[in-house]
Amino acid sequence: MTNRVSKVQRKTNETDIEVYLNIDGTGKSNINTGIGFCDHMLSAFAKHGRFDLNVDCTGDLEVDAHHSIEDIGISIGKAINESLGDRSGINRMGDATVPLDEAMVQSIVDISGRPFASIDLTFNSPIIGEMPSELISHMLDSIAINALITLHIVQKSGKNDHHIAESAFKSFARALDAASTFDLRINGNVPSTKGTLDA
What we know:
This protein is an alpha+beta fold. The chain has a single domain (about 5-185), classed as Ribosomal Protein S5, domain 2. The chain contains 4 helices and 10 strands. It has helices at about 35-50, 65-85, 135-145, 160-180, and strands at about 5-10, 15-20, 30, 50-60, 95-100, 105-110, 115-120, 125-130, 130, 150-155. The strands form 3 sheets. The chain has a 4-stranded mixed sheet with strand order 1-2-4-3, with helices on one face. α1 (about 35-50) runs parallel beside α4 and α2 (about 65-85) runs parallel beside α3. It starts with a strand and ends in a 19-residue tail after the last helix. The model has no long low-confidence stretch (mean pLDDT about 95).
């Protein structure tokens, strides 16, 4: 089976973004968003999902981080959707719980073709580094909706905002990796009684 690679470009009056994704990669990343904490989260996402991910974003950070974070989420989601193709032969579902010291977050993924996200994270501070904490959930939601996946993220514990956010991205990465991995037992078939996961 060949590597599943995608490239997405998104250019608006607010952002100019390029994303490269190899979902069958080894965890290499080159992330440049202009928002340090976002770079850190996406690097962790790539590393722990074994995805090769490049993200370059020039955004209107003189306004705030919202447009950049939202459009990066949209672009990564579209890249995931494109790389998965018709979803034939994959496990489809994945579940991972990841701790980081006192924090622990569970992510459940269904590569269902039905976009839905439930992100249950509670942060103590309005900002982490240069990134408003409310945009953590917004980015994850934007990725899921544009990837056409069902995503549930549940915070089990945590007091440190950095740890909570990092546990979320790492657990999402591990769950998505498990869901997108090929299951050789189904011999390339689509794991759905409907016979399709992209319509």
